[in-house]
Amino acid sequence: MPFDALLLLTFGGPESPAEVMPFLENVLRGRPVPRERLEQVAAQYMEMGGRSPINDQSRRLLARLAEQTKIPLYWGTRNWHPALNDTVARMADDGVRRAAVFVPSAYASYSGCRQYLENLEAATTAAGPAAPELVKIPPFYDHPGFVGPMADGLRRARADAGPDAPVLMSAHSIPSGAAATCDYVSQLQATMAAVAAGAGEDAGACRLVFQSRSGPPDQPWLGPDVGEALQALTGGTSAAIVVPLGFASDHMEVVYDLDRKAAATAAAAGIRLVRSATAGEDPRFVDMILDLVHGLEGDTVRPSCRPGCCPSARP
5-140+282-297 sits in which CATH class? Predict the structure, then answer.
């Protein structure tokens, strides 16, 4: 049965300083996060003007999709406006019966995949009997439309940084216990190898690192941290390349944690940080989304999850 709509489902983000703290409180509702940690993250948003880049990026992606397809497009977010529940209710009112759902999260994990499935289930329940069937597109970590733009970005970064600059490929850290329940790390490693090969790099010389951990200090999370990896570089390195491997677009974890925080750490060590590009609205990435929708229609893509993957519990 073909789809009669495409829903873009994103994390969401504040669009003004007044929205920052309510947004963060919504993201962390029900989780035992100290108030001071909330204020630290809010300060980071304020340094960036109190506005997350993710919503503008979502709008640009929707505009690119609209140029390539006539299928009705909808947009909802997990944590802010437009709220997913409101969007699904509008889809029901519009008579949408079956929609593909694209989440710009390339890898399996609880927060990057399973939680979105739970969000979709809750939204359809809230919308009632008229709610459309929502079919999430599976992780796309090895699709050429995702890998190709990043490989090109790494190639450009290499030309800027020079032939001897080490390559760090960075992804969002998650708790080690959560990583053990899914294919997150193995998928990252597969993408790292593909990006390196596409850029003409030695994959064995690239290093997988992590960033943006937010858990309590006594809880094991994936490492090493990108900042620690930069500080540990030796041998008179004057530049280093960081590839935002775990991210499809330039949202806060990229523009703050890499472009600002990691760059400052590198500068303190006398290293110039060269950050390569994300897929963003690259035409190949846009084409990938529509290719995956057609794959779902023909039932030719991998299942969204393997059995037992990413159990439904907050990491």
Answer: alpha beta
* Domain spans of the chain, in order of start: 5-140+282-297, 144-275
Nearest residue to 278 via CA among 306, 252, 239: 252
What letter does residue 204 receive in the DSSP assignment? G
Among 17, 24, 3, 91, CA closest to 47? 17
The predicted pLDDT at position 298 comes to 65
SS3 21: helix
Q: What value, to the nearest 5°, has the Cα angle with vertex 72 and ends 68 and 74?
A: 105
Interhelix angle 283-297/144-161, rounded to 10 degrees, is 160
Helix, strand, coil percentages, rounded to 5, for the chain:
45, 15, 40
Cα-to-chain-centroid distance, residue 29 = 21
**Full-prediction pTM beyond 0.85?**
yes
Q: Which two tokens stand for residue 246?
A: 């775990």
The values of phi and psi at residue 46, to 5°, are -65, -35
206 phi, psi to nearest 5 deg: -85, 150
The class level of CATH for 144-275 reads alpha beta
What is the block-wise mean pLDDT of the chain (315 residues), using blocks of 10 residues?
A: 92 97 93 88 95 96 97 97 98 97 96 93 97 94 98 98 97 95 96 98 97 89 97 88 97 96 96 97 97 78 62 52
Q: pLDDT value at position 233?
A: 93
3-state secondary structure (DSSP) of residue 6: strand
Q: What's the half-sphere exposure (Cβ side, CA atoms, 13 Å) at 168?
A: 27
